[in-house]
Amino acid sequence: MARIVRALPGYGDIQAGFPVIVDERMAIIEPAFAYLHELATVPGRSHAVETIRTYGEHLHDWFDSLEQSQIAWAGVGEREIAAWRNRMLECPSPHTKRPYARSTINDRVRTVCRFYGWAHQRGWIEDLPFHFIDVRVRHQRPSMLAHLDVRPGVVAANVLTVPEAERLPRALRADQLRRLFSALAPPYDLMASWALVTGMRRKELCALELFQVPETAHLDAGEHPLIGIGLSITKGGVPRTVYPPIRLLDATHRYIDEVRGPLIRRLRRADRSWRAPSALFLTSRGAAVSPARFTAAMAAAFKAAGVVGTGHWLRHCFAMTMLAQLQRQARTTPEINPLKVVQVLLGRRPIASTAIYLRCVEMHAAELEESVAWLYGALIGDG
């Protein structure tokens, strides 16, 4: 049985925690190691640690399947990858005990195909075990925003991927937001507020440090409703700036003074050798809130509030409310490109992934009116 072992610190340019896939004899599976190592270290192509971990998990499952079937990795064709894919369609995940989402299956298939594409370029294999076909994509009826829709009419599709219905994000209504926030305890309620009004990802929220919160006592809320904060730990490592409202920063300072500070003093009284992390958001035990912990807290809050969604929906809500707000502003300030602004604020490189929010705004315009009023009235306006 193939397995993953994590690299320890101190081994050259291999990061601590790097996934090393080994076979049943504990021998390193060299092609998988070389592929992941190149993705993690080659300048200009290096991927985030989380991405490498995900690719490693996908390849581990693939090589484990090959080992159990006694199939050589370099001798597979479309039939073998299709059989692996079909197993995921028919059987639940051994980890979650739930059926695999089709998007998850496609992600895994694409990872394996990218690996074989790399192996083909490096001369490890002679032929690719997959091919692409052209697929025509049917779009919805034209709208006044059709000129901003950058989706192509024909796309190249991997024959091994499975059809999946497009799932458009949906903004949370004001009543849903109220119920959700009432089910969150500190610091998760504050973290959710940051996600909602800045569009920050969980990784970025958990990476916020105390020194990054600017002082606001000398600022006038009318003159400085939004304050720019630079982020360096982001998806893909591309620095960007977020703009939390000054009222959110005021609430953050109250958290620092009334929650974080007393927590640190209590823990230091119990253990004089203990030192507080530099992270802004701490758990009740004084550890930095991890992305997994934030995800779990948000899942519990959504369940308690009776609302369907995940913490990432707060980012979707930000994108849609911001786009709706900018579209209003563009009526009197035509030089504004609402979609481009949202793309920059979200820190997304391809504009196509941002354009999906155009259709969301059109479909849920009435709900967004209420969400915009609640969000910006509570945190920016006079209430």
TrEMBL record:
One Gene Ontology MF term: DNA binding
Compartment(s) of residence: Cytoplasm
Keywords carried by this UniProt record: DNA integration, DNA recombination, DNA-binding
Biological process per Gene Ontology, one example term: DNA integration
Pfam families tied to this protein: Phage_integrase (PF00589)
Primary residence: cytoplasm
Protein name: Mobile element protein
